[in-house]
Amino acid sequence: MAEHTNGNGRRPTVQYGEETVERGAGGETHQVADGDQPVLTTRQGTPIVDDQNTLTAGERGPALLEDFHFREKIFHFDHERIPERVVHARGFGAHGYFENYESLADVTRADLFQRPGEQTPVFVRFSTVAGSKGSPDLARDVRGFATKFYTREGNWDLVGNNIPVFFIQDAMKFPDLIHAAKEEPDRGFPQAQTAHDNFWDFVSLMPESTHMLLWAMSDRAIPRSFRFMEGFGVHTFRLVNEAGRSTFVKFHWKPVLGLQSVMWNEAVKINGADPDFHRRDLWDAITRGDFPEWELGVQLFDEEFADEFPFDVLDATKLIPEEDVPVRRVGRLVLNRVVDNFFAETEQVAFCTQHVVPGIDFTNDPLLQGRNFSYLDTQLKRLGSPNFTDLPINAPKCPFAHFQQDGHMAARNPVGRVNYEPNSWEDGSGPREAPGVGFESFPEELAGAKGRVRPELFADHYSQAKQFYDSQEPIEQKHIADAFTFELSKVDRPAIRERVVANLRNVDEELAGTIADGLGLELPEATEPARPRVDGLAPSPALSILGNGPEEFRGRQVGILVCDGADNVVLDELRDALTEVGSQVEIVAPVIGGVLTSSGSVLGADQKIGGGPSVLYDAVVLLLCDEEADTFADDPAVRDFVSDAFQHCKMIGYTAAAMPVLESTGVARAMDAGVVELEAGEVGRFVQQCAQLRYWDRELDTVSVG
Ligand code: HDE
Questions:
Q1: What pLDDT does 703 receive?
Q2: Dist CA 157 CA 455 (whole Å)
Q3: Of 124, 168, 550, 675, which sits 20 to 30 A from 405 (CA to CA)?
C-alpha cells in the first residue's frame, strides 16, 4: 500500500491495489453491511461485530481490559465536553450573508464594503451572558450578537451586544463584574440571573454601571426573540480609507421585523414552558424560509465631533444618540441556513475582537483594548489548541498562508523544507509580506505619561442614564421601575438596596422614589456624583422599543385554542388572513391528536393545552363551540391560557361560544379593544389589531383578571 500526499491542503489518497481511496474524510465507507448501511467501525477503521455487549470472560464473568472497542468508545465519550465559554456560554448560531447596499470606499478600504450588491458569507452567534450552557433563554440579561464575516481579505469579527453600552469602562474590572453577576461561589446559585446580593453590591459600588443598569432593567434584556432585537458594536472603531484617512464609527444592527420584547411575568413563564424559546424561534424561522434580517448601520464621525461631544467617545458606558449622528444603513444581514452540527459550528466558533481586516481599526477604548487580549487567550483554553483557527467554522474562506506550524491537533501541515522568512529558496519559498496591501495600523500620534488613570469625562455616570430614562414611554419606565424593585427585593442586605436607590436619585427622583416605595425603603441620601450631571439632554426617541414599533404582525405567532366542532370557516379565514400578513399559526387542542372541526375533518394539533401556554404566542384565539365551552371554562390550563394572554396585554380573538371562558377568567368584565369577537367574514379587524402587538392600556390601568 502506498500513501500519496500533496502540499495543497488536499486530502491524501491511499492506493489499495487498483483502488484509490480518499483518506480520513470520516464518513466514507469501505464496506457495506445489510442494505445500504455503512459498517460501524472503531476510530481506527476496524469493523465492529457487536456494539451491544462488553467483552467478558464467560457469560457472567468480569470485563476484559483488551476490549479496545469498549475502551475507545467510553474514553471518547468521557472527553466529549469542552469548557463552556466563561461568559456567553449559552448561544445559538446560524449562517447567512451580508450584502452591501452601496460602496463605502469613501470611508474604508475594507474589501467587503467596496462593491454594491456583493455578498459576504457570515456566521452569527447570539447568546446570553451570565447563565451556563443549559440555562433558559429568557433570563433577564444582555444578549450577545457576534458576527464573523468571511471576507476576501480575512475574517472580521464584530463581537457585539444587543445593548449599545456596557457596565464598566476598563477591562481590568471585567473579571469582577462577571464574578459578581454569575452564581455566588459558595452556593453555586442563583443561575442566570442578576437578582442577588453580589451583583447589586458590585454595581452599586461602581456608579459607572448606572447607564447600563437602566438598559438591563428595561425590556431590552428580555427580547421576544433574536429576530426582534438590535445589535451594537458598542465601542467606537475606526474606518480607514485607501488614502489612510480615518473616520470614527459605531456599528448598529437594525432588525427588519422591528423591535419587540416580552413582559417579565411572561419571560418567567416562557422559561418554564420552553427554555429553548429563542433558539427554537430562530431555528423555526430559518427552516420555514422566513429568513431573519438586519440592516447594518454606521454612525460616522470625525475627531472634531469627538472633541465637541460632551462625553468621551472612548467610554463604552456612553452612546452617541442617533439624533446627533444619524445611522446610515449600508447593507443587510440575512440568516438563511441553520447549522448542520451544533457542536462543530455554534460551540466551536471562536470570535476574537482582534480579528479585523485592512480598513477597519481599533480605537483606544480601554475596554476594547482589554478585549483584544482576552478573546484570543480564552479560545486557547476553550478549544485547546492554537490551531483552533483551522476548524472549518473558524477558518477564513479566502486564501491564507503563513509559517506557523505544529501544535496540538495540527491538521493543516505544510510540506517542503521552508518554514521561515526571509529565506533564499527559489522553489516553494513560501509567502511574503504585502506592503501597501496588508493591514496597516492607523498611525495615531500618541503622547502622555504612563499611568493608571481614567480620562476626565469618564467620571460622568448619570447624564446618559437620565437621557435613556427620559427617552422611554411611560409603560417602559414602569417596567424599568418594576425590574429594579423585583431584583432588589431578592437582595438580602438592606444596605445594598439603599446604595442602589441612592445612586438612582442622581438619575431620576421619581424613579428612585417609586423603587424605594416598592421596597418599603425610606429614601436614602443621594450619592455624591463624581462629576455633575449634564442636564437638558434631549430625549432620544431611537432608544425606546415601543416608540419604534413595527406596527406589523409579520414573523409573529398566534395560538388558536380549539375544541371538537371548532368552526372551520372562521379557522380558514383566520389562517389565510394571518398567512397573508406573514405570521404563523399553532393549533392548541385538548389532545395532541387534534379535534374534529365543524366540517367533520380532523384538525391536527401542534400543542396540547397546558403544553402550549399563551406565553408562547404573540396573540391568541379562542375558537370554541357551545358543547365544550363549560368544560374549557373549568380547565385551569385554559384559564391560565386566557388570563395570561390578557395580563400580558395580548390581542385575544374569540368566537361567541367562548364567552363562558372569558367569564370564568374575568376577562368578560374587562373587555377592551384588544379583545375582538370573530365572526365569519369579520376576522380582518382582529388581524389588524394584532399589528399593535400589545394593548398596553391594560397594564397602565392596572386591570387585572384571573
Ligand atoms: Fe466579551 N468575552 N468581554 N464582551 N463577549 C467573551 O470570549 C471580555 C464585552 C461578547 O458568541 C469571551 O469566546 C472582556 C463587551 C460576546 O462566542 C471572553 C470584556 C461586549 C461574546 C470575553 C468583555 C462583549 C463574548 C468568553 C471587557 C459587547 C460571545 C468566551 C473588556 C461589545 C461571543 C469567548 C460568542 C465573549 C471577554 C466585554 C461581547 C472571555 C475581557 C463590551 C457577544 O473572551
A1: 60
A2: 28
A3: 124
> Is it true that the peptide bond before 223 is cis, omega within 30 degrees of 0?
no
Average pLDDT, integer, range 172-199: 98
Q: 496 CB contacts (<8 Å, ≥6 apart)?
A: 197, 200, 201, 204, 488
- Could you tell me what percentage of the chain is helix, strand and coil, using 3-state DSSP and rounding each to the nearest 5? 30, 20, 50
- CA of 144, closest atom in ligand 1: 43
Closest to 362 in 3D by CA, of 152, 168, 173, 157: 157
Burial class, 72, CB count within 10 angstroms (exposed 0-12 / middle 13-18 / buried 19+):
middle
Cis before residue 190, ω within 30 degrees of 0? yes
Out of 34-38, 95-99, 200-204, least confident range? 34-38
d(CA 443, CA 246): 10
161, 271, 387, 506: which one is catalytic? 161
What is the rounded CA–CA span in Å between residue 174 and residue 334? Answer: 32
| Cell numbers standing for residue 306 | 469627538
Q: Report residue 363 as a C-alpha cell.
A: 480605537
The predicted structure's pLDDT at residue 2 = 37
Q: What is the DSSP letter of 397?
A: S
What confidence tens digit (pLDDT) does each residue in 500-544 have? Answer: 999 999 999 999 999 999 999 999 999 999 999 999 999 999 999
> For the residues 461-482, what does the mean pLDDT come to?
98
In whole angstroms, give the CA distance from residue 400 to residue 413.
13
Pick from 324, 442, 364, 310: which is nearest to 169 by CA?
364
> Is residue 161 among the annotated active site residues?
yes
Q: How far apart are CA 46 and CA 39, in angstroms?
A: 9
Give the SS3 label for residue 267: helix
Q: Helix/strand/coil (H, E, C) string of 401-450?
A: CCCCCCCCCCCCCCCCCCCCCCCCCCCCCCCCCCCCCCCCCCCCCCCCCC
**Residue pair 549/259 in contact by the 8 Å Cβ criterion:** yes
Q: CA 67 to CA 64: how far, in whole Å?
A: 6
Mutate to test the pocket of ligand 1, among 375, 382, 383, 394 (most ligand atoms within 8 A of CB): 375
